[in-house]
Amino acid sequence: MPDPNFRIVDTESEFARVIELLRDQPCYALDTEFHRERTYYPKLALVQIAWPGDLVLVDPLAVDLLPFAEILESDATAVLHAADQDLEILELVCGTVPRVLFDTQIAAGFLGLSTPSLTTIYERFVDFRVGKGDRLTDWLQRPLTDGQLIYAANDVARLLEVKDRIVEQLEERGRLSWALDECEIQRVRLRGQRNPDEAWRRIKEARQLRGTARTVARSLAAWRERRAAALDIPVRYVLSDIALTGIAQRPPKDRRDLEKVRGFDRGTREEVVGEILSAVKAGLADTNPVADEVVSGGVEKDLRPAIALISAWVAQLARDLELDASILATRGDIEAFLRGDDNARLATGWRESLAGSPVRSLLEGGAAVAFAGNGELVIEERSRKPLL
User: Burial of 21 by CB count in 10 Å (0-12 exposed, 13-18 middle, 19+ buried)?
Assistant: First the structure.
């Protein structure tokens, strides 16, 4: 395949012209390149935008991206692949996300592809092969290499065509509305800066703590999160997970105690040591300790045996319908449905029709799971005629 035609936009006047051209477009492809390995917030390095007859690579190190908010908030459909992290950074630099989103990764799941890569959907829908040689390069360097520019341009070069092919196949199967609903869920999902008071839950070792140790871990993790955000550095650069857990298990009284903790950097400045000790004291004095129970309410004991059986049937149903099983229902979705959670995905919309309703009949005793004779499971009307 020939390299895509593109142009680099690195002046405010050129970007203003791009905005002007996009105002007349009903649909545009969008992607970003960014780094976050050494920062708390992602650092935007490049924005790729394509529409019929044009493809631009916008340099955010030279151009203010804020005017792009006008296009994002318009009625035009933004087509992205695996959009979650792109949406996060767009919200950060533009203050908003696309008003209308079509995520090709999500939509392809309704055609049986399980979280496909961009390479996979290009090959599947437009027979276009893209190299990945420049994926992990330094996107903040200037000038970017020809290889980087071509790689970045390819990410959006055929995305609108892919979207059209996916839409055609979804319409043929009557699933377009399902995919659009799922894209909307993705679009409005909360993202951005994490809640410092919940940061401890992302530390495996901290989740295993109990009582006072867990409360101290919560206090320390919240302090670490706020400091990392203020300095725009990864949380591990503030205090490692292993050091945080060790401090929580044996709360130190002074620097000497701290330096005995595995993973603690002995070169830590006195100012930071003071903040750590203050966070420890706050945790010890916390009158609202973290409850020992971490996992949300479980399924009633009588229904637990049904989880594995229903999971197997749902997985088979997804295969039969050529749906990504994780889109139809995860184990967590099944458990939420069995618990009767208000936000259970199997209780509403297309999922309720396909799976929720049969499972409800099963639970109410009006249906039964049976082997179909070919190794497959079916949910069918219950005969209520015992064999013995």
Answer: middle
Prediction pTM value: 0.88
Alpha-carbon gap, residue 278 to 10, rounded angstroms: 47
Query: What letter would DSSP give residue 354?
Result: I
Tell me whether domains 196-285 and 301-381 share a fold.
Answer: yes
Q: What's the rounded Cα separation, in Å, for the pair 49 and 60?
A: 13
Q: Which CATH class is domain 7-188?
A: alpha beta
pLDDT at 144: 97
Q: pLDDT tens digits, residue range 234-293?
A: 999 999 999 999 999 999 999 999 999 999 999 999 999 999 999 999 999 997 877 654
CATH no. for 301-381: 1.10.150
If one counts every other C-beta atom within 10 angstroms of the C-beta of residue 109, the result is: 23
Q: Show the tokens assigned to 11.
A: 């002046």
Its CATH architecture, for the domain 196-285, is Orthogonal Bundle (1.10)
Q: What is the pLDDT of residues 317-338, one digit of tens each?
A: 999 999 999 999 999 999 999 9
**Structural domain boundaries of the chain?**
7-188, 196-285, 301-381
Q: Please state, in angstroms and rounded to a whole number, the distance separating the CA atoms of residues 46 and 62.
A: 10
